[in-house]
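I had to read the description of the data format several times before I understood it. Each protein is reduced to its one-letter sequence and a matching series of backbone shape codes. The format is easy to grasp once an entry is in front of the reader. For illustration, here is how one protein appears when written out as sequence plus structure tokens:
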Amino acid sequence: MTRINVMQPWLGEEEVLAVGEVIRSGWVAQGPRVAEFERSFAQRQDVGYAVATSSCTTALHLALVVAGVGAGDDVVVPSFSFIATANAPTYVGARPVFADVDAETGNLTPETLEAALTERTRAVIAVDQGGVPVDLDALRAVCDPRGIVIVEDAACAIGSAYRDRPVGARADVSAWSFHPRKLLTTGEGGMLTTPHEEWAARARQLREHSMSVSAAARHTQVLAPAEKYLEVGFNYRMTDLQAAVGLVQLDRLDQIVKRRRELATAYQAAIAGLTGLRPVSDPAWGTTNYQSFWVEVLPGYPLDRDGLLVRLAEADVSGRRGIMAAHRQPAYAGRDTGTADLSVTERLTDRTLILPLFHHMTDDELDRVVAVLRRSGR
């Protein structure tokens, strides 16, 4: 049998040719391809401005900086998320305050958010977990009257939709990931999007050491102007090599989402007849790209989550444990991160697993995965 991986990026000859063109141009650092990728991404996501970065984590960091979050502030974050969501507030000297999530979507709700708010809350990072769109309008109803900024962590959500618009289109600032586990990949890389021109302009400077003149602009001139460093900045740049891949991937996105949703529908139909397994699905307010097809293993199933992962591995199928509970990680275990009840987070972390799902997954491969679920459910 051939191993079925949990995820595989869709990369082909078009990406190879695009990278070759950049190499032949002699300009491989941040330059014209990055600018083109930013314009195309902003148009695709129906948002005013896009700023390419070295990762989603660096985009989250910049998002908090341009939103004015700093030392002494509290930032509410879901514990049910990759560790970067909690790390970003720590980078700016703020305190991450953990909130619980909805049992169905794995996302923040107004109720779980309000339970974690403090007098010092300056921002909230709302995650579209596994590509499932968070109900942003409901969260804004809580935050806007209090002057609390919402940063949308859309790391997994490219291709998802919220109230008939692309995810992130309604947010003040969003951060995106192009890691190979995501639908659109540049190897490593990220993006910040915002409708605020001044926030985008500052993020562009901050990602490039806060230089007054970008490296790309300086290199187009024979006698480059002297640059100034306007504040303490960072080296969070994307390369033109990565952006060239991203542009090809962006053209593939609709096909990728369509196929992933077809596979997810097949999974859901198969799992519907099995007692004790609950698959992720679309929320009432949007559609998910199924970046992660996760399943909750309930007490009615003969095996627990870890036992089912072993059965899958024995069949050469690579599953993964569900999303981590960040508050359990050693990096945060001894810190003051609030007092909100996190019981749903812990339940989902202990009971969920991620099944294989990728664009070129075949129907036969999906049937192999489902067969393991059925045998294990007897």
Notes: The first strand starts at residue 49 and ends at 53. The radius of gyration is 21 Å.
